[in-house]
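input
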Amino acid sequence: MHTDQDQPDQTAAQADNATGAQDSGSDSMPSLEQSLRQAELLAQEHHDAWLRARAETDNIRKRAQLDVANAHKFAVEGFATELLAVKDSLEAALGNTSQDMEGLRNGVELTLRQLTSAFEKSGLQEISPAGEKFDPHRHQAISMIDSTAEPNTVVSVLQKGYLLHERTLRPALVTVARAKN
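output
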């Protein structure tokens, strides 16, 4: 006894048999449907690999941005730590009311040495160019004066300058020897 539900299954089986009969004659050549399925699977694999690579690239970019942001945020951490000792010394000097002038002077000199040490550890160098040739990249001339020194030589330093890892942070304010007429 056949029902209406059995007929579609039989029709599909007959179609498969007919396709199989056609394929049996050409075993070396896959059918177009098989080639299409293989190509679709391969395309899906490539698409999935591309999506994973894209996601990983986005994650790397986000991590790098976070690392750069943290580097900017905490770049002065070492310098700030060094300055804490200087601040502590200044507060101790202000808190000690029984010091004489010599003791206060010694405390200030110690604090200055701590600050100089912190500067050196952080790559901050002092520019004190007295007697050197004027360098517009590191010096700012405030005035020119008549002098026995060679022309364009720094005669006096009004304010020291500073370099941060060989980059001018603040130029030294100087007076420069004028060329003789």
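quick obs: The longest strand covers residues 139-145.
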